[in-house]
Specification:
The protein is mainly alpha-helical. The protein has two domains: about 230 residues, no CATH class; about 180 residues, 2-Layer Sandwich (Alpha-Beta Plaits). Helix content is about 45%, strand content about 10%. Helix 7 packs across helix 12 and helix 9 crosses helix 10. The longest helix is centred in the middle third of the chain and has 53 residues. It is elongated and about 100 Å long. The termini are far apart. About 40% of the residues are buried.
């Protein structure tokens, strides 16, 4: 009964964390409070560590809690909190269902040797790079970041499409409970990595359970070293064990070897599957620091076992059957994953192609400006525009793991994953894409949800004067000059009076910029109708500055006493 409680409690908690974490990247209604978002991300190991280094606050010590919990109870973080680990369990469950219900076979794992050279090399390279100030490998391998890229880049467009489909269905019956969500999809290139990681993680989970956690993930390797000395660990009681091998064949970490009667605690993720399947209570979860009896732990006893002996009645037969079917299963699963990856990438590419022309046409129609000549002067941008609160490009690149949470939370969708705008080591880190949208003057959402401290919190007053970029004007691209037609859209949409219209000729007005008032919100660049190059655009600041607020002139008006109303 106790083993079942442990197993079912672990499953319930893990599903809760998976649902909560996944919804962070899908919620477009802003129904989740920033306190709840920060509460979910607080316990994530790498984001919490980076936020502590950036803010040095007591409320950023989630990674310390994870280390203490691992030292006490083993890798429960990997089995109950880490969203990528739980996602692997979902894939494993799908594989077990397919094997059991479709193929009518018993799904089994097999004990395997640890890939110590690979996993410790990845941990070492990631640690050295981090100590040298680079988060490039954390960007690629941090489980929370990988999960965020998959959900924000691949699952979110599907979720939005499903919402819009429901909106169409409900509105056809006069019910407006659901509403359409406008999506500004990223380009295809930044989607290649999330699609690749989904294929890799899914394939390994379908075939070998938690192999990714115990081979590739640096967080899993680090916590594995700590869990080797955990207080509570799995123990095999040799007096009760009849060597039926059920525990070993159900271990998704493939870390129980009954031939040597050993458990590799560096790979055990604390899933409690072994406890749940043992019919003789021959394996339990005990305190190894303060054992309740004086009997030596059976987990460290060695038992002679000939390699040709059968582990149980039919046990080796099951393993042999798996080996015969391995090649066929591998081919089917590989085809499935390739098709799934191709679907997601194709969906995103099609979405971008179909919507880009429609969005630009709609924008021009709203302006009532007819542009017949293409612009010829390229935009000269020296730096990409990093989010408000990121202080500088260097601070942002040194702290952002590209988890895409700010991308999902941005209400105007101006934050988009970069490709090479920040350089090779900054791939997938968010940037402000003013061709896609603009940064809302009265919004600080991204500064509230960043889990790593790459984007520091800003008040609304601070946001109004934070200059993330500066306006540039190329009159040779402006339709007022090239086509002698009225426009003025940039000045109309500028919230700080950094762009104003001045007399030109033939009764027309032409834009003039006041850079010291500009905060780099990009409203002018987004609304500018010229193509392919904008006449007005934002050049990012390498170090964020403070803009000078415009002087608001008060009207000199004295009411007439004769007309008090």
């Amino acid at each position: 009964m106790r083993s079942r409680i442990l197993k079912y409690s672990r499953v319930a908690v893990s599903l809760l964390f998976l649902t909560a974490t996944g919804f962070l990247f899908l919620d477009f209604t802003e129904s989740l409070s920033t306190g709840l978002i920060n509460g979910v991300t607080w316990i994530q190991f790498v984001p919490s560590l980076l936020k502590f280094l950036n803010l040095m606050g007591l409320l950023t010590l989630g990674f310390v809690v994870v280390l203490i919990a691992t030292l006490l109870y083993g890798r429960i973080y990997c089995s109950t909190v880490c969203p990528l680990g739980i996602l692997q369990d979902v894939f494993s469950r799908i594989s077990r269902f397919y094997t059991t219900r479709i193929r009518r076979r018993r799904p089994r794992y097999r004990p395997s040797n640890p890939q110590n050279l690979l996993r410790y090399s990845l941990l070492g390279v990631t640690t050295v790079a981090f100590l040298l100030g680079s988060v490039f490998f954390l960007n690629l391998l941090d489980p929370f970041s990988v999960f965020g890229k998959i959900f924000a880049g691949l699952a979110r467009p599907v979720y939005y499409a499903g919402n819009n489909l429901l909106a169409d269905v409900f509105q056809s019956f006069g019910n407006y409970r659901f509403y359409h969500v406008e999506t500004r999809q990223m380009t295809v290139l930044p989607l290649i990595f999330p699609a690749f990681m989904l294929g890799l993680v899914g394939f390994l989970a379908l075939r070998r359970g938690r192999l990714y956690c115990n081979t590739v993930c640096p967080v899993g390797t680090l916590l594995g070293l700590v869990s080797k000395y955990a207080m509570f660990r799995i123990r095999i009681d040799e007096t009760l064990c009849n060597r039926c091998a059920e525990c070993s064949l159900n271990c998704k970490a493939e870390c129980i070897d009954l031939k040597s009667n050993e458990i590799d605690f560096t790979r055990c993720v604390g899933c409690f599957n072994c406890l749940n399947v043992c019919s003789r209570q021959g394996i339990d979860y005990r305190n190894h620091w303060f054992p309740s009896d004086s009997k030596p732990s059976a987990a460290f006893d060695t038992v002679e076992c000939d390699a040709t002996d059968e582990i149980s009645d039919g046990g080796r037969g099951i393993i042999s059957d798996q080996e015969h079917a391995a090649s066929a299963q591998d081919g089917e699963r590989r085809d499935f994953l390739f098709r799934l990856t191709a679907y997601f990438v194709g969906f995103s590419a099609a979405s971008r192609a179909l919507k880009s022309s429609a969005q630009e046409t709609d924008r021009r129609d709203d302006l009532d400006v007819v542009v017949t000549k293409p612009s010829t002067i390229p935009e000269k941008k020296n730096f990409p525009v990093s989010p408000p609160g990121s202080i500088s490009l260097q601070h942002f690149m040194d702290s952002c793991t590209a988890c895409q949470l700010c991308v999902s939370a941005c209400p105007t969708h101006v934050l988009q994953p970069s490709f090479l705008e920040y350089g090779f080591t900054g791939m997938m880190q968010p940037r402000l894409d003013f061709h896609a949208s603009f940064c809302n003057f009265d919004c600080v959402r991204c500064t509230e949800v960043c889990p790593t401290g790459a984007i520091l919190p800003l008040t609304m007053e601070e946001k109004h004067v934070t200059q993330i970029g500066i306006v540039r004007l190329e009159l040779d691209n402006c339709v007022v000059q090239t086509e002698n037609t009225a426009c003025g859209a940039c000045a109309e949409h500028c919230p700080t009076q950094a762009v104003r219209m001045v007399p030109y000729q033939d009764g027309l007005t032409i834009p003039e910029i006041v850079p010291e008032h500009c905060i780099g919100c990009g409203a002018c660049e987004y609304i500018c109708p010229t193509r392919p190059y904008r006449a007005i655009y934002i050049d990012g600041n390498e170090v964020h500055a403070e803009a000078i607020p415009p002087v608001i002139e008060e009207l000199d008006y004295t009411p007439d006493d004769d007309f008090p109303f």
